[in-house]
Amino acid sequence: xxxxxxxxxxxxxxxxxxxxxxxxxxxxxxxxxxxxxxxxxxxxxxxxxxxxxxxxxxxxxxxxxxxxxxxxxxxxxxxxxxxxxxxxxxxxxxxxxxxxxxxxxxxxxxxxxxxxxxxxxxxxxxxxxxxxxxxxxxxxxxxxxxxxxxxxxxxxxxxxxxxxxxxxxxxxxxx
Length: 175
Hints:
By secondary structure, this protein is of the alpha/beta class.
């Protein structure tokens, strides 16, 4: 069995990356979706409060969004908090110093970041990755994190396999 890596991703990974790069640039014309509405990054929105709780407990200051799409989720956007206060952005709501976006299919964020971050978030990304590449991708995600990793994976048929592997990495991360 071939072991894939960042330096040697699977042929399927390379083909999907090219497709996602094209969709970022051209949108989905057949579906009537322009480029600016294709992978904008808004899937993070439903997780902002949960992630904010983790950040608040740990005092995290730096965040990496791995698979951020176009990063529009970090533009000024009104967020109403449970405490009744309204924040002007996710960064303000999370009270962090920096949020770094990484998305290999979107040119402005396609350079793999260096170093580590207090937290890494990745929402609705891993289900788009080929199964044979998940080990190196998940290990890469965890390698960027000092304090926590937040993953949201919409995986229906492969649910058990992906989550079993993620759980193993979580246990190793905290040992």
